[in-house]
Amino acid sequence: MKLEILKQRLELYLNAERKILSGQSYRVGSRELTRANLAEVRAVIDDLSNQIDMADGSGRGSIRPVVF
Question: What confidence tier does 66 reach under pLDDT thresholds 50, 70, 90?
C-alpha cells in the first residue's frame, strides 16, 4: 500500500481512538450508540504504524540475528 494511504488510514484510526476514549457509548432518547472496540482499533493503529515504518525505511522490518 502506498505510504500516503497508510498515513491517511492511520490518522482516521487515531481519530476513532480519540472518539472512543471520549466516550465508549452514549444514549439519545431510547437509542444507544456504542463505538468500536478499543482493543481492535489499537491493534490496527499498531499494524499501520509498523507498515509506515517499513514503507519509509525507518522500521527494522523482519531482520533477525543469526546464530552460528
Answer: low
Which amino acid, one-letter code, is at 48?
Answer: L
Task: Give the pairing type, strands 25-28 and 31-34.
Answer: antiparallel
Q: Which helix (H) or strand (E) holds 45?
A: helix 38-55
Q: Given pLDDT bands bounded at 50, 70 and 90, which one contains residue 57?
A: confident
The long-range contacts involving 14-22, CB below 8 angstroms and separated by at least 24 positions, are 14/45, 16/41, 17/41, 17/42, 17/45
Whole-number Å distance between alpha carbons of 38 and 44: 10
C-alpha cell of 43?
A: 491493534
- Domains of the chain: which residue ranges? 3-55
